[in-house]
Write a structure and sequence with these properties.
heterodimer, A: alpha/beta, Rossmann fold, 3-stranded antiparallel sheet, about 25% strand, B: about 250 residues, mainly alpha
Chain lengths: ~230, ~250
């Protein structure tokens, strides 16, 4: 479970996240929606301790991310698939991540097969396509077999087959009782994937609701645009 | 800490840059040995009066600044080569991450420094043979130990300087340029200062400190112990600045 309580982030006079509170429950795919600059990525970065909140807190299974021993065993994170050393081989990238959290080398090998990158395990990351890098990021997130997963725009750069693959993966992970928190701009994709949605705009919570409630009178896109119109940058 | 250190070691040896730096050091050791051999050939064919004016054929003095620079670049690479987002997601305890990086750089620097100095001093010894000073500046290996120890200490410190600057500046290129200024730029300028500042300020420059630590400078501004302390101040200040940046700034 992810609990965000009165989370605030200010950069000088700019408030990126403003007293934001919501809960992401296990067993569901929770979509995190909002216009560009709404504070989605900043919120996710604060959840995993990359950015320090100006106020409030974010807890994963009751603890701050920084206080989780071997955090990759608790939380799998895909925030930016380009945040890798592009000169390193795909397998070596997973191996050092695994070593940092006491995870065996065999897990890295298995995961590369699982995400369809077994044949390119010894290729340097710079030679991989955007979609392959996205899959490598997913493999890194799954490395510690975590109960909580966070994906920031996971379908970016994926072809239709890849989009379906990641949709099925997220749905499967939620079905196993894991907490899946995913941000996306693609309403059609979110409508197919998410069970629950958290909508933010200008750093503030606009709506937190089950998907079926939001879409009972129309499409997710219509509901989203109604809720966020005039709240963009 | 053990996991973080294992990860840092794996990161270091799975990219190409460190191998390039080690190859550069190896080439410099070979180049130094070649120069040493050429110098000895020239010495052997020179008249006795000329032989008394020859420079030392000990190549380790020449290669030490290059080893310092390469190890400092390695330190900067350890700090900057992996995006912080990924590094801090895997090891969110920033103090532990810094400790792992520092331990890795310190160990690597000492190993590389010791091997490079040993190869250079050993090859120089073989080439110089039993020739007298000044071309062979020391009689036995024990005579060269203070210098070798000082050189390895300086290599350790420059590695930590590179790491600290990399963490503080968050750019390999900028960190390496600042290292170049510290190792070569400033020491080239300080002798031009008016007396007595020229000696006082030059005396705290990294290249000069190595000789002061070894105790081979007559009328040195600093004693060997004070010079060791001064070298450590460089490491503490740069690493401290890097630590503050790592601990306080968002990734």
């Amino acid at each position: 479970m992810i609990e965000v309580r009165n989370l605030t982030k200010r950069y000088g006079d700019t408030t990126a996240v403003d007293d934001l509170s919501f809960t992401v429950h296990p067993g569901l795919v929770t979509g995190f929606l909002g216009p560009n600059g709404a504070g989605k990525s900043t919120t996710m970065r604060m959840i995993v301790g990359l950015d320090r909140p100006t106020g409030g807190e974010a807890l994963v299974d009751g603890k701050r991310y920084q206080d989780l021993g071997q955090p990759l065993r608790h939380v799998g994170v895909l925030l930016d698939p380009a945040a890798v050393h592009h000169g390193r081989r795909a397998l070596d990238h997973l191996r050092w991540l695994a070593a940092s959290n006491g995870i065996g080398r065999g897990r890295a090998e298995d995961l590369l097969e699982q995400v369809g990158l077994g044949s390119v395990r010894h290729k340097r990351i710079r030679t991989l396509s955007l979609g392959m890098k996205q899959r490598l990021g997913v493999a890194a997130a799954l490395l510690g077999d975590p109960r909580v997963l966070m994906f920031d725009e996971p379908v970016n750069g994926l072809d239709p087959e890849g989009v379906r693959w990641i949709r099925d993966l997220m749905r499967g992970l939620a079905k196993e009782g894991r907490t899946v928190f995913v941000s996306s701009h693609l309403m059609s994709e979110m409508a197919l994937t998410a069970d629950h949605v958290v909508i933010v705009a200008r750093g503030q919570l606009v709506k937190e609701t089950p998907m079926e409630t939001l879409t009972e009178n129309g499409s997710l896109e219509d509901a989203y645009l109604d809720l966020t119109s005039g709240r963009g940058l | 800490m053990r996991n973080a250190l294992a990860a840092e070691w794996l990161k270091l040896r799975t990219v190409r840059a460190p191998y390039g730096l080690i190859a550069a050091i190896g080439l410099m050791v070979a180049f130094g040995a070649t120069i040493s051999w050429l110098l000895v050939q020239d010495y052997d064919t020179s008249p006795a009066a000329e032989q008394a004016k020859f420079a030392s054929a000990d190549a380790s003095v020449v290669i030490n600044p290059v080893v310092q620079f390469c190890v400092a670049a390695l330190g900067a690479l350890v700090a900057t080569s992996d995006p912080r987002l990924t590094a801090l997601t895997a090891v969110p305890d920033r103090k532990r991450l810094l400790a792992a990086k520092s331990a890795l750089v310190a160990t690597t620097a000492v190993v590389i420094g010791t091997v490079a100095l040993a190869l250079s001093i050993g090859s120089s010894r073989l080439i110089m043979g039993d020739r007298p000073p000044p071309v062979a500046p020391w009689d036995s290996v024990s005579d060269v130990l203070p210098w070798a120890g000082a050189a390895v200490l300086s290599i350790l410190v420059t590695g930590l300087i590179g790491l600290g600057l990399g963490l503080a500046l968050r750019s390999t290129a900028v960190a390496v340029v600042v290292v170049g200024v510290l190792l070569w730029g400033l020491p080239a300028i300080t002798p031009m200062l008016p007396e007595p500042w020229n000696m006082d300020v030059s005396g705290v420059m990294v290249p000069y400190l190595v000789y002061e630590v070894a105790g081979v400078v007559e009328n040195a501004p600093l004693s060997p112990l004070a010079a060791v302390a001064c070298l450590l101040v460089y490491a503490v200040v740069t690493l401290g600045t890097g630590m503050v940046t790592l601990l306080r700034r968002d990734a």
